[in-house]
Design goal:
Blueprint (H helix, E strand, L loop, with lengths): L1 H27 L4 H5 L2 E3 L36 E3 L6 H4 L9 H10 L37 E8 L3 E6 L5 E4 L3 E4 L5 H12 L6 E7 L4 E8 L5 E6 L4 H8 L11 E5 L2 E6 L1 H7 L13 E4 L5 E6 L5 E4 L6 H7 L7 E12 L2 E2 L11 E3 L2 E8 L2 H4 L8 E6 L7 E6 L6 E3 L6 H4 L9 H9 L22 E12 L4 E7 L1 H5 L15 E6 L12 E7 L5 E5 L5 H7 L13 E3 L1 H31 L6 H21 L5 E2 L23 E4 L5 E6 L5 E4 L6 H7 L13 E3 L5 E3 L13 E4 L8 H15 L2 H9 L3
Parallel strand pairs: 8-12, 13-19, 20-24, 25-29, 30-34
Antiparallel strand pairs: 1-2, 3-4, 3-7, 5-6, 8-9, 10-11, 10-12, 13-14, 15-18, 15-19, 16-17, 20-21, 22-23, 22-24, 25-26, 27-28, 27-29, 30-31, 32-33, 32-34
Helix pairs in contact: 14-15, 15-17
């Protein structure tokens, strides 16, 4: 029994594995062509499909099959195609458009993809071009079987009939009987029906309109995008049917589309004539069983360059270069005007059969050649061949008679060169060196619209860019070697003095560049300097600084100091020093960050207590906060003048050489002394002669328990800092700040950072800044 059960179990297991493999194979099988492109469905003899449409207004059935072998051979049957099942994931990937060999060759030759003229017009959905039932019926419309007519009469009679033309071409009207209308136009329908009704009724008016129109069946054959059978509205013409059915394929001829009726070609149409000129002369109205045949294209040519429409066009027999230029929109104004380049394929030459070569022997294979043409009537008559590429040579961007002026000038433009032209002719006066930006900025300072509401603008810093009179340059290309050379000259001697050594003769293509003082760092005496003086001076303001003018002299130019001035606290701020300080602080912060991070990592590795890693993590956050505060603080560029407390005259100030944009501030005599840091109450106290630093610390409540045992620091009004000790006894003067430092415990990083942040907001630099000023971190 056990053996039997095992046997059945093995059979069941084999069957399950086999069934699983079949399912896996179905999941990974290649989709058949009919499933990918749609399965054709044939209608029955009555014209109704398996999923028959109840509405008399027929929809267009556009076959999606790419292979003619999938369509039924019965051309008289209507073919519909079921929509293909599409993989949603695969549909997200756009498939590239198919390019012909000629399109690829053009792309390789030009480096860009040229569009095929007219192809994008057939990319729109078919419903865009569908002729609906609400359009006006033309008067020459021929009534046929399936058309509906609305007949209304009033007067001696009142009637309204909706009648349909039967297969024999007749309509039935009560009391009148059958009336033949096949072949009658819409314009003729009203008189015909009126005449018939007049045999029965008198004294009435008649109105006949078209109701639902019949559907006709047409065939699209040849090189079409979607060849097949279509059921369309009888109002459609040849052009509208082409747009509705997708038009020619990439290999179809758009210029020789045929309309075949009863086996005879009744008309041809060139869609180029319609697309370019709007000519619908060959646009015939379609009838039932018409065939639209699209032959294969006979060739393609391309045109690019300085034309209005660079594209690939289909070539027609006898088409000339002039015809191509015309349908491409013509030559643009940027064309060379003389040259054309014609790239064409030279066909292979084969010898006729002979005894030596009975089957013929190729003398030369097909190759590509280039022909140089001119824009002339003879060249325009050149007959184009399949594969030709015409390039309209564009105009060179070179100016043959121009001299360019750029840089710090009023008119950075190109000027016409003439014989004997010199630099002074381009820049006749110094006013030609004032750039438009200066005037725009100056004019923007005064706004008539908002002068009543805007605050007064008293910015006095000059924004005029100073001209570099000692150096300007000419860029010149040597025609013999095509190498660029620079010819420097002194601008001042060329314009102001007209010195022939510097007022040089110019050549076509020269470029003159004028510089300002900001473009190159030159000697200090060659620059115009302005300094700002503020505070306790008689005439605070903005003053020019001449050569050799020092700090005491510029203060005297401002009228000297007032009686309340505190010269010991004189402050000098400098932009160049500010940049240097910022660089030193950034370097110090980076070094501080490395040291602190290394310390935290070492403590985390060597921790023996379970709670210590959490404490280290909190301290790491505190480090980030502390360093962030340090980076936000910016130096003010103050220079330490090393003044004496007894300085009371401007002549006692150091003779510092001034730079452009220096700011000098003379403070008022202070009356207080500040105590900050690890004290019980940080306060400002009135200064009193004879009090020591320790007296002020006691007045602030004395030191905290967290205070460091190191001596306090004294920050003076002139910016200097001193460490107070028994050896270094210094008298406290007004404006001094006494700072008591916190303890720097090895594991007390959090408290240390918290306390240091108070110093950051008090002094700008913080503890890192103090150490920088003391000589390094």
């Amino acid at each position: 029994m056990k053996i039997s059960i095992s046997k059945y179990f093995l059979i069941w297991l084999a069957f399950a594995i086999h069934f699983h493999n079949i399912c896996m194979a179905q999941d990974f099988k290649i989709t058949p062509i009919p499933d990918a492109y749609g399965v054709p469905k044939q209608t029955n003899s009555a014209g109704a499909t398996e999923g028959a449409m109840d509405s008399p207004r027929q929809k267009i059935d556009r076959p999606n099959s790419l292979y003619p072998s999938l369509r039924l051979n019965n051309v008289s049957s209507r073919v519909t195609v079921e929509p293909a099942t599409v993989n949603k994931q695969a549909s997200k990937i756009p498939l590239p458009k198919e390019m012909s060999d000629f399109e690829v060759m053009v792309q390789q030759s030009l480096g860009v993809v040229l569009p095929v003229f007219g192809r994008e017009l057939f990319d729109a959905p078919a419903s865009t071009f569908n002729t609906g039932d609400q359009v006006n019926v033309p008067s020459d419309f021929v009534i046929g079987p399936g058309d509906e007519l609305i007949i209304r009469a009033w007067g001696s009679i009142e009637l309204e009939y909706a009648v349909t033309v039967d297969r024999q071409g007749s309509i039935f009207i009560p009391k009148l009987g059958s009336l033949q209308l096949a072949g009658v136009t819409y314009k003729e329908a009203t008189p015909v029906i009126h005449q018939a009704l007049s045999k029965i009724y008198k004294g009435f008016e008649l109105n006949v309109t078209m109701g639902t129109l019949r559907s006709i069946r047409i065939y699209v054959t040849g090189y079409a995008r979607s060849p097949g059978t279509y059921q369309i509205n009888s109002l459609n013409s040849l052009i509208s049917a082409l747009f509705m059915t997708g038009g020619p394929s990439s290999t179809g001829d758009i210029r020789r589309i045929e309309l075949r009726r009863h086996g005879v070609v009744t008309g041809t149409i060139d869609l180029y004539d319609f697309l370019i000129h709007g000519n619908r002369q060959g646009d015939l109205r379609l009838q039932n069983e018409d065939v639209i045949h699209i032959p294969s294209l006979t060739g393609q040519v391309a045109i690019a360059g300085s034309v209005r429409n660079s594209a690939i066009f289909q070539v027609k027999a006898g088409m000339t270069l002039g015809d191509l230029l015309q349908i491409s929109g013509g030559i643009t104004s940027t064309a060379d005007g003389l040259k054309l380049s014609l790239e064409r394929v030279k066909p292979a030459v084969v010898h006729p059969a002979s005894a030596e070569a009975p089957t013929g022997q190729s003398q030369s294979k097909s190759n590509r050649i280039i022909e140089e043409l001119t824009i002339s009537p003879q060249s325009m008559a050149t007959v184009l061949r399949d594969g030709d590429l015409v390039i309209v040579v564009p105009l060179s961007p070179q100016f043959t008679n121009a001299v360019t002026l750029k840089g710090q000038v009023a008119l950075p433009l190109r000027f016409a060169w003439r014989s004997g032209l010199r630099i002074s002719d381009m820049l006749p006066t110094p006013a030609a060196l004032i750039s438009p930006d200066y005037w725009i900025q100056r004019n923007s300072e005064t706004k008539m619209v908002s002068f009543l509401t805007d605050s007064a603008k008293t910015q006095g810093s000059p924004a005029f860019p100073e001209i570099n009179w000692e150096y300007a340059v000419i860029e010149r290309i040597v025609s013999e070697s095509l190498r660029m050379t620079l010819i420097p000259f002194e601008l001042g001697k060329a314009i102001l003095e007209r010195d022939p050594k510097h007022d040089l003769l110019l050549q076509p293509g020269d470029v003159i560049t004028v510089f300002s003082r900001k473009d190159f760092r030159g000697p200090l005496e060659n620059t115009t300097r302005f300094v700002k003086i503020e505070g306790e001076v008689r005439r605070p303001g903005l003053y020019p600084v001449g050569l050799g003018v020092s700090l005491p002299q510029i203060i005297e130019q401002a009228g000297g100091v007032t009686d309340l001035s505190y010269l010991f606290g004189t402050q000098l701020f400098r932009e160049s020093l500010k940049q240097q300080q910022q660089k030193r602080i950034d370097e110090a912060i980076e070094g501080l960050e490395r040291d602190i991070t290394r310390n935290i990592v070492d403590r985390s590795r060597n921790s023996l207590v379970a709670e210590e890693p959490n404490a280290v993590s909190k301290e790491a956050d505190a480090v980030k906060s502390f360093l962030s505060v340090l980076r936000q603080k910016k130096p003010d560029g103050r220079m330490l003048l090393e003044l004496n407390v007894s300085t009371v005259k401007t002549s006692q100030l150091p003779a510092v050489r001034l730079e452009n944009n220096d700011v000098i501030f003379i403070p008022t005599i202070p009356e207080t002394v500040e105590v900050v840091g690890a004290v019980s109450a940080q306060r400002s106290f009135l200064w009193k002669d004879g009090r020591t630093a320790e007296d002020y610390i006691q007045m602030a409540g004395g030191r905290k328990k967290s205070a460091s045992s190191s001596p306090p620091m004294l920050i003076r009004a002139d910016g200097s800092m001193l460490i107070l000790s028994f050896v270094n006894r210094v008298n406290v003067v007004p404006g001094d700040t006494i700072w008591v430092e916190e303890k720097a415990e090895q594991v007390g990083w959090l408290r240390l950072f918290k306390d240091w942040s108070q110093i950051i907001y008090q002094f700008g630099f913080g503890a890192a800044g103090f150490k920088i000023l003391q000589g390094g971190l």
